[in-house]
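Kindly inspect what follows.
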Amino acid sequence: MPIGPNDRCSCGSGRKYKRCCGAALVSAAASEERPAPGTIRYAFEPGTYQIPAGFSPSIACLELHADGSQNYHFVLVRHAATELEELASQVAEGDLEQAFAGGTAPDLVAERLKATGYVLVENPRIARDDP
């Protein structure tokens, strides 16, 4: 049975799903509130991962902390290379949307993504937008 937005989150935080893992599609920058002290909230961000053959769709799972900090929890990459970065990003967005169909906890979203061909990247190289 799918979890509703006002149900308690399945991650055990005690918060409503819409204010916890259900908000995972919202990027960290657009997050409207910080999680309560002692809790962790997750955000999934679609993107691309550069490989020798071009770009592959990728999805990063970020841990969002009460102090406003964030860190990469894991990165998944689907090895379906394309020369166009924009196309790989669009594929990642669509795959993430499908994984969240019905709304689920972050670990189940990751499992759905793995079932569509995403694999965990050990020690990913993260490109920063910082000047």
In short: Residues 25-32 have pLDDT under 50 and may be disordered.
